[in-house]
């Protein structure tokens, strides 16, 4: 694998991110990803270190996006002290064994540490064994919360 560069996502990266996500999920969602870039791809300014630390990062290998990660610091969600949340991660299927996911996770965790937090969390589907295995290989384990849901329609 060539030199990996982790950097903030740009509008010109969206088509490649959409393709990676579509290969993983089976659905192309260009409007969704445009919204993600708008919400998480711009650096919001604030006087507080903890507020507004949102990130949409990509892994660039010779001008090609081969992976992405999205997350932000959330303050007092569910009564917990501020921590980093990873909302999405994806790596081009053919590049998954090249350390790209680990590099993306480390890069966003470094940004979370710079924002003053010492914990990172995520949620994932119980049947997503690939992503669960990845996060566990990176030292993540069950956290203090239990997700609950109820159908309302």
Structural features, described:
The protein is α+β, with helices and mostly antiparallel strands. It has one domain: Aminopeptidase (3-Layer(aba) Sandwich), CATH 3.40.630.30. The protein has 4 helices and 5 strands. It has a 5-stranded mixed β-sheet with strand order 1-2-3-4-5. α3 links the parallel β4 and β5. α1 crosses α2. The longest helix is centred in the last third of the chain and has 15 residues. 27% of the residues are buried. About 5% of the residues have low confidence.
- CA-to-CA gap between the ends? 47 Å
Q: What is the CATH superfamily label?
A: Gcn5-related N-acetyltransferase (GNAT)
CATH architectural type: 3-Layer(aba) Sandwich
Rg calculated over all Cα atoms: 16 Å
**Shape annotation:** globular
Give, in spatial order, the strands making up the sheet with the most strands: 1-2-3-4-5
Strand content: 15-25%
In short:
By secondary structure, this protein is α+β, with helices and mostly antiparallel strands. The protein is built from four helices and five strands.
Topology:
Elements lengths: L3 E5 L5 H12 L4 H11 L13 E8 L2 E11 L8 E9 L8 H15 L5 E3 L6 H9 L16
Search tags:
153 residues, alpha+beta, Aminopeptidase, 5 strands
């Amino acid at each position: 694998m060539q030199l990996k560069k982790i950097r903030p996502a740009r509008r010109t990266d969206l088509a490649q991110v959409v393709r990676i996500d579509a290969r993983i999920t089976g659905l192309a969602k260009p409007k969704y990803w445009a919204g993600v870039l708008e919400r998480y791809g711009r650096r919001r300014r604030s006087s507080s270190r903890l507020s507004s630390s949102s990130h949409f990062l990509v892994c660039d290998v010779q001008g090609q996006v081969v992976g992405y990660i999205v997350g932000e610091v959330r303050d007092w969600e569910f009564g917990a002290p501020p921590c980093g949340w990873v909302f999405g991660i994806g790596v081009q299927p053919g590049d998954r064994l090249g350390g790209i996911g680990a590099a993306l996770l480390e890069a966003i965790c470094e940004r979370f540490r710079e924002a003053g937090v010492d914990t990172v969390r995520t949620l994932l589907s119980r049947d997503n064994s690939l992503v669960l295995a990845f996060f566990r290989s990176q030292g993540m384990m069950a956290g203090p919360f239990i997700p609950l849901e109820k159908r309302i329609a």
